[in-house]
Design goal:
Blueprint (H helix, E strand, L loop, with lengths): L1 E4 L2 H4 L7 E18 L10 E20 L5 H11 L4 E11 L5 E13 L12 H10 L1 E2 L2 E2 H14 L5 H15 L1
Parallel strand pairs: 1-5
Antiparallel strand pairs: 1-3, 2-3, 2-4, 4-5, 6-7
Helix pairs in contact: 3-5, 4-5
Length: 179
Amino acid sequence: MWLFGYGSLVWRPAFPYANKQPARLDGWKRRFYQASPDHRGTPDAPGRVVTLLPEPSEQCWGMAYRVPEKGRGQILDDLDFREKAGYERHQLPLHLADEHGTLTGEVVEGLVYVANRDNPNFIGSCSMEEMAQHIYRSVGPSGANIEYLVELSKALASMGVHDPHVVDLMSALQPLLDN
């Protein structure tokens, strides 16, 4: 079984895996459009985390993890709890890459958690400045929302991935961090 991480799972999987490798998911884009009332915010002041939106011309790079058979049930239970605030499991084709980001030609079915637009925690788009301010002020049981954005940005950069949405959001956050 393969699992695709495109948000915090890229930099903090927190589950055992047999191996990991960069992967590309075609037809989807990553966006900070999901409220986080349980990890990067609270029910009264939810944070903002990523989800995927279908977009035929887009690609989303992340990390694919091969989950071992032993303990798989517990891993999935833990992930279902971690992704409980509006996320659903989907099986989608993942294009695996090597450590340099070069596609290997291997395509596997991967489990992907997606928070659809009709879930109660979908908050959608606003200006990059408003998103950055929202992230800047949000804190939850898993830590500051800033950490989520910064660590995702670093992880993608270390993979050689340029995600314009994440890059633009980091640029909007920088003036707040400089003050």
